[in-house]
Specification:
Layout lengths: L12 H10 L8 H13 L4 E5 L2 H11 L7 E5 L4 H8 L4 E5 L21 E4 L11 H11 L2 E5 L7 E2 L2 E2 L6 E5 L13 E5 L5 H8 L5 H5 L19 H11 L2 H24 L12 E2 L5 E4 L3 H13 L15 H6 E3 L6 H5 L2 E4 L7 H14 L7
Parallel strand pairs: 2-3, 2-4, 3-12, 4-5, 5-8
Antiparallel strand pairs: 1-9, 6-7, 6-10, 8-9, 11-13
Amino acid sequence: MIRFSKACVTGNEIKYIQESIETFSISGDNLFTKKCQKWFEEKLECKKVLLTTSCTHALEMAAILFDIKEGDEVIMPSYTFVSTANAFVLRGAKIVFVDIRPDTMNIDETKIEEAITSKTKVIVPVHYAGVACEMDTIMDIAKRYNLFVVEDAAQGMMSTYKGKALGTIGHLGAFSFHETKNYTSAGEGGLLIINDENFVQRAEIIREKGTNRSLFFRGMVDKYSWVDIGSSYLMNDVSAAYLWGNLEKADEINQNRLNSWQKYYDGLKELENRGFIELPKIPDGCVQNAHMFYIKVKDLEERTALLDYLKRNDIYAVFHYVPLHSSEAGLKFSLFSKEDIYTTKESDKLIRLPMYFGLDNKDIEKIIYKIKIYFKGTVDE
């Protein structure tokens, strides 16, 4: 069976984990936490980053930093992972979903403004598949209506929008280092990017259980105490050590995935030209990171049939999100602004193909071949 995903391993992770253990200081904000955070601040050219236990927790921190309260409204796409919404629902917000663009599966920036009310406080663009949302338009809307923006860049590490790293454009940004992502911190982990300096000190406090412990260790207060709400959002240093093993080869990992992405694209382009499938679209000004390669077929029935066919041929491909507004919790905690023209229809058509660092070219060739066979006689004999 060709796996759908595989955790990224470069070969140095065990060495760094051992090194972390031998320091006898393996809680958060130690040797490898600091090395990783410095790497991100330099690579992404951002003001401040904080490693967290997950992207979910980075988003939860954003909700606290924005002082989300009961009755506030938060705008986002319905085609996203549940954590995007949950982080704000936990603080009492109502989620307002906006339709997506069919070309990128990202939030339709032209539909955001009409979803804004006097209760709106935050816009959450989700960079699907590591392809950027139309951030200039979104930031302009946010500025005119005095709204906060947190980029859900869970899938976006190493992607850019008009030369800027994803996650560095909004007031805050959140990344994931889950094992399915391009880079991982031993299976689970996340990152909060702070682009507005006004949030830096409080973010450190929230991350340290609501205490000013970080200020104490920098000698800025003579003792630390409970000063705000918060939780334990620190990544442990062993997980950061694993992540460091990925980051030191970040460019190699990125290029390997891009090569796989391009091989899929070139091999399946014929099927798109003949009207059997749709391939991913990358807008001008966007540089993607090959987080995933997906195709879109005619409808839900064909998607189900193709997935079953691939499984019978030892290829594990998957569909992705079920739109949140149609879920049990979505019906309770959210509303959909205007009409769902593309969200459900396009999500029903999407199939994610295997993608991971080190994916064998022969496996990609097999997947392409089998998909062509499925679409009846399109393979050159």
